[in-house]
Amino acid sequence: MSHPLDLPAPRLAAAIRDGKASAEAVVAESLRRARAIQGRLNPFVLLRDEQALAAARAIDRNRDGRRPLLGVPFAAKDLTPTKGDLTTLGSWTEGDHIASETALCIRRLEEAGAILIGKTTTPEFAFSSFTRSPRWGVTRNPWNPERTSGGRRADRASPWRPAWFPSPKAPTWAARSAFPPPAAAWSD
């Protein structure tokens, strides 16, 4: 039998809500998997073990059925400020900047019950179509570690991107597939 973390986000949230899965166990496994690939692929700038596990334990104590992403782990790019965490934009020019506030997009995901487990690498100032920064190095492609992980191209073509995650170029995954933008909008 597969781990609950292997379920699609809506089914994982339902399993946690119904008590069939523990948010703490799901987050712990997510952090374990992140650490297991870090040395080979370099996807993370930081992992938020204490904060993520504390949020998961709080969810296990109070399984609020109104929160659609209850206990679902996620990661944010190093471009997105998260209060108390390093936010470098993939550059040395930002120094060791610690964000004083959390971005609205992260707050909304957390309000929906999702749990931020860490921050992922980004090209310097997100100014590239592949993930290589002077600060964090190269992030490798999980299907072929000899290649880099693509930026925008990987985002729109990724088979693992969860359906609930908003598209950067359309309001929702469904909207993107139902109303594709002109081809020029997708060019890099």
Q: Count the beta strands.
A: 5
- Whole-number mean pLDDT: 79
Distance between the termini: 41 Å
CATH topology value: Amidase signature (AS) enzymes
Strand content: 5-15%
**Main sheet attributes: strand count, strand direction, barrel closure:** 3 strands, mixed
Overall geometric form: globular
Strand order in the largest sheet: 1-3-2
CATH homologous superfamily descriptor? Amidase signature (AS) domain
Oligomer: single chain
Q: Describe it for me?
A:
By secondary structure, the protein is of the alpha+beta class. It has a single domain, classed as Amidase signature (AS) enzymes, CATH 3.90.1300.10. Strand 2, helix 4 and strand 3 form a beta-alpha-beta unit. The radius of gyration is 17 Å and the shape is globular. Helix content is 35%, strand content 10%. It starts with 8 loop residues before the first helix and ends with a helix. It has a 3-stranded mixed beta sheet with strand order 1-3-2, with helices on both faces. Helix 2 runs antiparallel to helix 3. The longest helix has 19 residues.
Describe what is shown at a glance.
The chain has a 3-stranded mixed β-sheet with strand order 1-3-2, sandwiched between helices. Strands 4-5 form a two-stranded antiparallel sheet.
